[in-house]
Design brief:
The chain has helices spanning about 10-55, 60-90. The protein is mostly helical. The longest helix is centred in the middle third of the chain and has 48 residues, at about 10-55. It is rod-shaped, with a radius of gyration of 25 Å.
Length: about 90
């Protein structure tokens, strides 16, 4: 039985390279997103640990500093990290 369609081997190789590059780019994107997600999660946890440390402090100044710092680390740092990631990769969204 004769084949209905034959493709040029150069074209097949080019399309295979293009598909492999697209899959590699998708994998790099997924790893970058997971890395940012893990960084934000660690900031959340560090902020909660700092807040927990404020409960053991007895000096009011230390308590207020730890609470303020924990709120900043737990909420503002992940927000700015996600915002910077979005602005850096805005053309890919």
């Amino acid at each position: 039985m004769a084949t209905l369609l034959t493709l040029d081997p150069v074209r097949v190789a080019r399309e295979v390279r293009h598909a492999a590059a697209a899959f590699a780019a998708a994998d790099r994107w997924r790893l970058a997103w997971l890395r940012v997600y893990a960084q934000c999660l660690l900031c959340f946890l560090a902020g909660y640990v700092m807040y927990g440390m404020s409960w053991g402090a007895s000096d009011p100044t230390t308590v207020s500093i730890l609470v303020s710092l924990s709120q900043f680390v737990a909420y503002a740092v992940p927000l700015f990290r996600l915002l910077s990631f979005y602005l850096k990769h805005a053309d890919q969204f």
